[in-house]
Amino acid sequence: MSSSSIFDVNIDNVRELLAASQQQPVVFLFWSAQSQESLQLDKQLSQRIGKAKGLLLLARVNCDEQQQMAMQFGIQALPTTLIIKDGQPVDGFAGPLDDKALDDKLAAYLPKAEDELLQQALVLLNEAKQQEAFPLLSDALQLAPERVDIKLLLADCAVELGQLEQAEALLATVLLQDQDADFKAVQSKLALAKEAADTPEIQALETALASTPDDMLLKEQLAIQYQQVKRSAEALELLYGILRQDLNFSESKKRYLDILAALPKGDPVASQYRRKLYSLLY
Fold it and tell me: Where are the transmembrane segments (predicted)?
């Protein structure tokens, strides 16, 4: 064994390595020190699997020493590579591969970047850390925009954070055939959140502002109410309108900055209104 992911196979550990394939794929390399192609492939696989952080294991079978084992696996040429998963061969190839072909072959058995982000986000969501999970889910969806499971988790997270417009926009992109029970659960949650976000205080201020649309104090008061129910985009738009007229009006700039700071990292609303503020300041 040369590392925690690379093993020299013998009669004592072969069953253990086959059992390990229940947890992660095991790459069995049947090689010979007499074969230059074997030595080259061994080097290529060792480098890649050594960097895979335990997500793949390499089981090196020296056929000069383990001829009986090679016969039991039905090996007819060297080098031969078998990929074992759940105790059974699922893929393999005889002879060498160039670097790109080998990378493509192994990539099929490694978690995709979006899956790693998703797993990190799920841990945070289980700890009710939606603020920290949100940017991970956003990044995962950028990598795999067709993934409905990621989209629904991001929409649910957006609802929890009060980003109702963003949640609604995400749900609107889910195709009819993908609108399953999970979709309907997030949709219902969004509907309830929207209803709760339309308080009597907000309705009264909206009516008053409609009568006097230039009243900056009313705008600020309404922005405060919007932010209390996490309607951040609407609050920022009102405050931005105030700052365009008077950068130093009341507490509007401070409230604007406080809302930006409270939004999750990578939130598109925060990015949009941060750029707007910079355009006013500079």
Answer: none
Q: State the Cα–Cα distance between residues 219 and 211, nearest whole angstrom.
A: 12
Kindly report the three-state secondary structure assignment for every residue of 109-176.
CCCCHHHHHHHHHHHHHHCCCHHHHHHHHHHHHHHCCCCHHHHHHHHHHHHHCCCHHHHHHHHHCCCH
Is the Cα torsion angle 40, 45, 48, 53 positive or negative in sign?
negative
- Return d(Cα 103, Cα 97) in angstroms, integer: 9
Q: What is the mean pLDDT of the chain?
A: 92
Same fold, 6-107 and 113-196: no
Strand order in the sheet with 6-8: 6-8, 57-62, 26-31, 80-85, 88-94
Question: Strand pairing partners for 89?
Answer: 84
**202-235 residue pLDDT tens:** 999 999 999 999 999 999 999 999 988 888 899 9
Q: Report the pLDDT averaged over residues 53-78.
A: 93
CATH-assigned architecture of domain 200-281: Alpha Horseshoe (1.25)
- 6-107 homologous superfamily: Glutaredoxin (3.40.30.10)
Q: Give the three-state DSSP class for 13.
A: coil
Question: Among 7-11, 26-30, 228-232, where is mean pLDDT lowest?
Answer: 228-232
| Separation CA 168–CA 164 (nearest Å) | 6
Give 160-191 as a 3 state SS string: HCCCHHHHHHHHHCCCHHHCCHHHHHHHHHHH
Contact 171, 187 (CB under 8 A): yes
Which pair of tokens denotes residue 165? 């417009």
68-94 average pLDDT score: 94
Per-domain residue ranges for the chain?
A: 6-107, 113-196, 200-281
Question: In the numeric block, which tokens belong to residue 203?
Answer: 């309705």
Class of domain 113-196: mainly alpha
